[in-house]
Task: inverse folding
């Protein structure tokens, strides 16, 4: 991801994440505050309406007491000869007191609908305000209703919903009276016992209904009045409710306390099905000894969040708007900050593509300006260093190449075209000269095995091959490489050099062609092997590689001549020569140094370990051969080894060191090998068993 995009994302996160977190916290706080205010509103309403309703009841109670104390009412019930108009006249006089519905001075908050005189023995009405004493037949249902009313305490106000009046009137005009429209219309009833009669007063409940229907502080909120008998009044229903229909309203009466709103949890009203809040408060008793009424306030809690949701919407809108402004500002700032980085990037690309004149313009005296100046100075140093490097490369005959493992590209120095004619279509390794070079058939397999080692990251120091040059001829080259690794130890690149050793190899070949061979074994004679070793000494600096000399002497050779014959002895010498020549073929040269002594020259000892070669020779000789006489003969030998690291030694010294090592072997039990370097004296193990000869043990360098 680009720095510019990363910075924009980071800055956006710094804006968005806190904004979202703030919105979430604010939403929680707003909801908590809304619910708290919602509860406070419900409590306040309960306290306020309890006071208003209590005052209203006091007015009703005072009016009822005043009517009940009127002596004329009892006269109506005790005089059978009272004219029909007399009750109406008395009730008319009572209405003038300002409490009756028809009074011009009536207080609309204190209205009386009906007054009735009821016989306590029969529970039948004696007189009432509409018809005086002219009554129709009284039904059993009406008697039962009046009995229930008269059984209540004096002055006790209750809610009653049964229609008492339509049962006393059979005229059509009564049906049109708004007071008789609904048989379930709520009535507030109180009674006073006067001797054998009861004065029953029916109050107009409109004012009280107004409290319960209009006092809503939220949708689906209810103001509920519950009298001492379990009858309720609220917006959806008014009247008596049986215990099995009372639902959760009973919880209000159970938990209510006087003068203090009490929270009621885990309830459900008939109009509410969602989680609700509720408060209950007991109203003070109107008269001493009366049961108290209960006022309840309930509402669905989700309504508390409507206003907070509106406010939260405005807050979120503000947060979004501010966030957009911040993000837009952040984008502008990022573009301003990253503009110098873009200039640096573009300059780096130009330099990478070969434009060594490209430089960063120093735009300010800040960190970017310092980076620009430092970068320009670095490019100047690199250009000078590269020029020096190119000059050295161009003056050298050696070809330098670089294999970048990360990009898998291969680059060659310019002098490559002086020796080879290949134009790669790309820098990729698949198109490179290393893979497409024409290798001599005899060297091809070995070269590609070495190249595979390089591609796998295995260590490779160098080797010699024959490649086809620009003129179509095969020339000998020496390929040497060095591995460069990164901090994690993985190969980053391989730097190599291709050295033309064709002239030296041809000189070696000429020496070989002119050399004299031993007539018996077919190996070089003493002079030829010494010249070969001398030539290896000259090439040691070019190859940057060590070589080794093996001095091999057959153990107890005289036994073969004496026990079998001289012909058998010659067969033993040929067998030894063939075994040595077979084992060192491809990386060494062997010669008969004299009698039963042989010398082998091993090149590239880093790859062709001399001790391994010695083990293989001893193992091969141990296998033996079958002589012309049919005898199965096994041959033992002692081998001295000297490893040559520089060209300061003479051939005689080198062979002498190997001979000294061999002599030490002879002295210490034969049939073994040991190594002797310059300025050291061999220290040979006491003996070597068959497993050691076959390569089962290691032999260390021989020291004094």
Result:
């Amino acid at each position: 991801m680009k720095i510019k995009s990363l910075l924009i994302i980071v800055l956006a996160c710094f804006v968005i994440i806190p904004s979202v977190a703030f919105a979430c916290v604010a939403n929680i706080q707003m909801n908590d505050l809304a619910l708290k205010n919602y509860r406070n509103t419900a409590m306040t309403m309960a306290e306020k309406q309890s006071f208003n309703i209590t005052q209203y009841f006091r007015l009703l109670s005072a009016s009822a007491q005043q009517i009940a104390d009127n002596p004329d009412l009892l006269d109506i019930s005790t005089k059978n000869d009272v004219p029909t108009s007399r009750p109406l006249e008395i009730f008319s006089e009572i209405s003038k007191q300002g409490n009756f519905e028809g009074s011009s001075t009536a207080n609309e908050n204190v209205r009386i609908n009906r007054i009735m005189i009821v016989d306590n023995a029969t529970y039948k009405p004696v007189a009432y305000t509409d018809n005086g004493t002219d009554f129709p037949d009284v039904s059993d249902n009406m008697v039962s209703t009046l009995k229930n009313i008269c059984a209540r305490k004096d002055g006790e106000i209750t809610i009653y919903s049964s229609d008492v009046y339509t049962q006393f009137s059979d005229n059509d005009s009564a049906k049109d009276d708004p007071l008789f429209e609904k048989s379930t219309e709520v009535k507030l009833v109180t009674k006073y016992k006067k001797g054998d009669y009861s004065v029953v007063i029916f109050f107009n409940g409109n004012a009280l209904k107004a409290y319960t229907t209009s006092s809503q502080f939220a949708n689906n909120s209810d103001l509920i009045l519950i009298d001492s008998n379990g009858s309720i009044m609220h917006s959806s229903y008014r009247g008596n409710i049986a215990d099995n229909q009372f639902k959760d309203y009973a919880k209000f009466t159970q938990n209510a306390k006087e003068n203090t709103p009490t929270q009621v949890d885990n309830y459900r009203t008939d109009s509410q099905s969602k989680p609700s809040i509720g408060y209950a408060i007991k109203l003070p008793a109107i008269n001493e000894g009366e049961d108290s009424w209960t006022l309840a306030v309930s509402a669905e809690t989700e309504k508390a969040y409507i206003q907070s949701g509106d406010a939260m919407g405005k807050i979120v809108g503000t947060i979004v708007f501010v966030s957009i402004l911040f993000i837009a500002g952040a984008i502008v700032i990022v573009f301003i900050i990253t503009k110098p980085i873009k200039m640096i990037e573009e300059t780096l690309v130009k330099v990478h593509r070969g434009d060594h004149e490209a430089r960063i313009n120093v735009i300010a005296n800040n960190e970017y300006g310092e980076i620009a100046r430092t970068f320009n100075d670095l490019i100047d140093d690199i250009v000078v260093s590269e020029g020096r490097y190119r000059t050295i490369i161009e003056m050298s005959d050696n070809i330098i190449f670089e294999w970048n493992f990360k990009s898998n590209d291969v680059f060659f120095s310019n002098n490559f075209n002086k020796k080879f004619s290949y134009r790669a279509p790309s820098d990729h390794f698949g198109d490179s000269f290393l893979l497409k070079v024409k290798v001599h058939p005899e060297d091809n397999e070995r070269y590609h095995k070495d190249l595979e080692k390089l591609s796998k990251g295995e260590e490779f120091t160098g080797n010699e091959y024959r490649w086809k040059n620009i003129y179509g001829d095969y020339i000998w080259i020496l390929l040497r490489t060095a591995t460069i690794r990164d901090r994690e130890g993985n190969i980053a690149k391989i730097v190599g050099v291709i050295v033309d050793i064709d002239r030296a190899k041809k000189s070696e070949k000429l020496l070989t062609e002119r050399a004299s061979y031993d007539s018996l074994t077919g190996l070089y004679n003493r002079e030829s092997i010494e010249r070969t070793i001398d030539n290896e000494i000259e090439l040691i600096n070019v190859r940057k590689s060590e070589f080794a000399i093996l001095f091999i002497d057959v153990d107890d050779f005289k036994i073969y001549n004496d026990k079998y014959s001289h012909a058998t002895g010659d067969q033993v010498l040929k067998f030894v020569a063939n075994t040595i020549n077979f084992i060192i073929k491809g990386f060494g040269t062997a010669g008969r140094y004299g009698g039963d002594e042989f010398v082998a020259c091993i090149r590239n000892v880093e790859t062709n370990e001399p001790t391994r070669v010695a083990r293989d020779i001893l193992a091969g000789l141990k296998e033996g051969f079958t002589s012309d006489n049919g005898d199965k003969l096994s041959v033992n030998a002692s081998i001295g080894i000297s490893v040559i690291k520089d060209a300061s030694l003479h051939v005689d010294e080198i062979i002498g060191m190997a001979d000294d090592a061999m002599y030490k072997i002879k002295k210490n039990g034969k049939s073994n090998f040991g190594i002797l370097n310059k300025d050291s004296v061999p220290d040979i193990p006491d003996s070597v068993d068959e497993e050691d000869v076959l390569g089962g043990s290691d032999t260390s360098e021989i020291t004094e």
Observations:
- The first helix runs from residue 3 to 68.
- The longest strand covers residues 474-485.
- Confidence is low (pLDDT under 50) at residues 101-109, 169-184, 241-245, 680-704.
